[in-house]
Amino acid sequence: MPIVKWMKSLSVNDEKIDDQHKKWIELYNRVHAQMMGIEPTEDYLGIGEAALAEMIEYTKYHFSSEEDFMKKIGFPEYEKHRKIHEAFIRKLEAISYQMQEDTHVLNSEVLKVIEDWFINHILKEDQEITKYARRLQKSNTTTRYP
Ligand SMILES: [Fe+2]
Ligand SMILES: [Fe+2]
To answer: C or N terminus of the chain, fewer CB within 10 Å?
Structure first.
């Protein structure tokens, strides 16, 4: 059962970014199922590492698209938002490194970090982009809105 579900209220009024968030949620749910559903006797560390590596790669791709979108609409908090992205990537990479070096990293802890970020970022900070995009759309429905 998926842990996180896409909701219309998460929309940032851009199909590409919305689709990426949907895909990110899908990926998170898959990572969650993989990391939590494996028997301890299996190669759970290897599977966890691979799932996390895939998530890091997709997150980087998504962040760069979202940053392009923010630039395109002239989002005033661009730099602040970009730094949050950067910090999250650093956090994910640190976990990934820890998993390679230290066998005591629990999959549940890794998922907690990702989930906390999801709640704080997509549900709150990305919503600031949505609000700005909506304001922009209202104030200029004809030419300037990308
Ligand atoms: Fe995002
Ligand atoms: Fe973001």
So the answer is: N
Residues with CB in 5 Å of ion ligand 1: 66, 126
What is the 44 CA–ligand 1 centroid distance (Å)? 28
The residue range of the domain holding 40 is 12-139
CATH at residue 95: 1.20.120.50
Are 28 and 51 within 8 A, CB to CB? no
List pLDDT tens digits, range 9-55.
777 778 888 899 898 888 888 777 777 776 555 565 666 677 788 88
| Reported pTM | 0.81
